[in-house]
Input
Amino acid sequence: MPYSTAELEKLTLTADYHTHTVFSHGTGTIEENVIEAMAKNLKSIAITDHGFRHWMIAISPADIPKMRAEVERLRKLYPIEILLGIEANLISLNGDLDLSEEQAKLFDILIFGAHFTAKPKTLKACFGWWLGNVFCRTKAQREKNTQAYIKAIRRYKPKIVVHLNHMVRVNCAELARVAAECGTLIELNAKRTIFSEEEVKDMLATNVNFVISSDAHSADRVGEFSHVKKFLANHYIPLNRIVNIKQE
Output
């Protein structure tokens, strides 16, 4: 059964692994995100600015050393785990993300998703990936999308797949099976969690686990998950399957 209002009010986050800063599309600094995370009693926060091929709002590779230095400075000041990450973009039906395996090693955590504002890898990918999902939301396209996600998961071993079914539809059950095999979590996004009751049940039939993320683009949104609470009021997911939540 879904959770009652009283049960949902007792839920608190222990970590937020999807937040943005001024280094991409956010309005706060890394330190401001960290301070807000501490104010909300989080034990861990990840800074995951937008991937390299995001139009206009991408993180710059030249900024990575600055971000790393800032994270190291803040780790000495605040008693909270601070992770430097990136929200990479899926940019082709072949499972390509907008960073190399070597670039992925620069980060403590890798999360990824699909954004129509990310530049496809090639002109061919533009037609098969971008245009295919904008204008041809067919069952066949959904299967192509699913295989693209699966290839990316197997290749990059990301920590989290973010905002599934937003913009790009997938076969959630098939993807969840592979995510479970690879230790990849499926995000319950505090802005947009888009799963049907059937999709939730299909994912729960696998061994996949979930993670709640704020997808904060301002410091005050770090650790915020009221939308997910509404989702859990209608769709039951056992708390032991959500890795960053506890019940007071």
Summary: The chain has a mean pLDDT of 94. Residues 139-156 form the longest helix (18 residues). The first strand starts at residue 11 and ends at 13. The chain has nine helices and nine strands.
